[in-house]
Amino acid sequence: MTRIRRGYIARRQRTKIRLFESSFRGAHSRLIQTITQQKTRALISANCDRDRIERDFCRLWITRINAVIQQKGVTYSYNRLINDMYKSQLLLNRKILAQITILNMNCLYMISNEILDQLKI
Fold first, then answer.
1. Counting CB atoms within 10 angstroms of each CB, which of 37, 80, 90, 93 has the fewest?
2. Which GO terms describe its molecular function (predicted)?
3. Whole-angstrom Cα distance, residue 70 to residue 76?
């Protein structure tokens, strides 16, 4: 049986995969199968870390808003503020509210008073 020389396509795919593995050590930088496994694991971990960072920031924003609202009065809480905002159809996300609390607390008090006035009517 004659020998069949393989084309360049498979070799080109392997070199493209090897471009990703510059920081891997040992067999993870030499063997194609382990390179692809490490690559998928690395990309999945990067995505999980991005989600975790977003979760942490959301928790921080909620904590800041709640701290300022609690200073106003014990009866009013973060949960009631967000619920009243949805009822009055005021669309401000938590990030913007947290920035308002940091820069100008009086503005947040004005917003909450306006919401309470609208709901009482």
1. 93
2. rRNA binding; structural constituent of ribosome
3. 7
